[in-house]
Design goal:
The structure is a single chain. The relative contact order is 0.13. This protein has an 8-stranded mixed β-sheet. It has 2 domains: 112 residues, Rossmann fold (3-Layer(aba) Sandwich); 252 residues, TIM Barrel. The protein has 12 helices and 16 strands. The model has no long low-confidence stretch (mean pLDDT 94). Helix 6 packs parallel to helix 7 and helix 7 runs parallel beside helix 8. It has 387 residues and is an alpha/beta fold.
Length: 387
């Protein structure tokens, strides 16, 4: 979105939020539990809503779980916070709209509600997530890599002191984050991944709900690293690329066994298709500014990247810059080094998708994120590396 009233874009949302003294959390799961914990001191949460009839038969976090039909939608004090992953949210928003609820009036996503509540009510900064890449090094060369590995002439491994400086600066500005995600590249190939997890956990764990990283399932970590990952309670997403990389099947099974042995929490991510952002074939240079703004607003990219003291509006635009595909977009960044307390709401707005132009330059070369991207491809299809 394009800034029109910087520092005040969510004033109306806050006004609506303040009217809702009876809150229901839609989603009796991990996200709902954490939002409940963060809001429990307000004593306004009336219970959970969930479409799962089995959950409706039990209590969750000591609260009743309701079907949406049991909620009195005529009660103007009621507000609903949608506490599910962005990947499964669209159907719930449509369901609530059919029930007569209005977006940002009496129903809110957890990202919007918590960000606005923290900035306006608590005078603090809440971030839903951040993507942090210490290294782009990867042992795979996926044709439709969202990090644009095939386009990199060389891998980028950032200096350790610079990485620590970024982490320190980020948590100097941000009071709480739902998900701090260490990405890549292949994070398990970064030689200081253990030290990074240890540094974040020792210094800032009270500001983080989920500390997570990801692996492509083709790398076996050594014992020392496994011990650190276990001790510092990081969660791991294990991407299942065995169909595209069949030679990794044995390694994949051994990796899961090791994670079990060291009691490291993990989830296996098996996706049927990827999107191809198609940076070399998509060209929207002739699009109007209005059309580019609408595209960026509808893209719903859930990530921003933290790099060298800067936040990037779109992490994929940042990855494309690192890969040498596009120039750095100065209008699509927020400089945390120059931040002052009076910019709290501006930084919150930036994290929620606002910036100077209302889009990023990479929009002219990108086909968009999951919801709008028609370019569906086989996950992790390998291509030969250029010599």
């Amino acid at each position: 979105m394009k800034w029109k009233n910087k520092g005040h874009e969510f004033d109306a949302v806050y006004t609506n939020l303040k009217k809702r003294s009876k809150l229901y959390l839609f989603g009796a799961g991990d996200y709902g539990e954490k939002i409940y914990e963060l809001l429990s001191l307000k004593k306004v949460v009336q219970g959970f809503i969930d479409n799962n009839t089995d959950k409706q038969k039990k209590k969750y976090c000591g609260m009743h779980v309701y079907d949406i039909s049991q909620i009195d939608k005529e009660d103007h004090e009621i507000g609903i916070i949608i506490c599910v992953s962005p990947y499964f949210r669209k159907a719930i928003i449509q369901q609530l709209m059919l029930e007569g609820y209005i977006y940002n009036e009496n129903m809110f996503t957890m990202e919007v509600y918590m960000s606005v509540y923290y900035a306006y009510e608590l005078e603090k900064l809440y971030f839903p997530s951040i993507s942090f890449l210490p290294s782009t090094r990867c042992n795979l060369n996926c044709e439709a890599c969202l990090n644009f590995t095939p386009y990199m002439k060389k891998f980028d491994e950032r200096p350790w002191e610079q990485i620590k400086s970024d982490v320190d600066l980020f948590f100097k500005r941000v009071d709480y984050i739902m998900l701090f995600h260490i990405s890549g590249g292949e994070p398990l190939l970064y030689p200081k991944i253990g030290e990074l997890v240890e540094y974040i956990d020792n210094n800032y764990r009270d500001k983080i709900h989920l500390l997570r990283t990801v692996t492509n399932g083709t790398v076996l970590p050594k014992e020392e690293l496994l011990e650190k990952l276990s001790k510092h309670r990081i969660e791991i997403t294990v991407d299942d690329y065995r169909e595209a990389v069949p030679e990794s099947c044995g390694t994949f099974d051994k990796l899961l066994a090791l994670l079990e042995e060291y009691h490291i929490k993990y989830e296996v991510n098996k996706v049927e298709e990827w999107i191809d952002l198609a940076p070399m074939t998509t060209h929207h240079e002739d699009w109007s500014e209005e059309r580019l703004c609408k595209k960026f607003e509808g893209c719903h990219v859930p990530w921003q990247e933290l790099r060298d003291g800067l936040l990037y509006s779109c992490n994929y635009a940042s990855y494309a810059h690192v890969a040498g595909i596009v120039e750095e977009d100065k209008d699509g960044v927020f400089d945390l080094k120059e931040y002052t307390e009076r910019q709290r709401k501006e930084l919150m707005e930036f994290r929620m998708g606002y910036n100077k132009k209302g889009y990023v330059e990479f929009c002219k070369r990108c086909s968009g994120y999951v919801d709008m991207n028609p370019n569906k491809v086989m996950p992790a299809k390998q291509m030969e590396r250029k010599k």
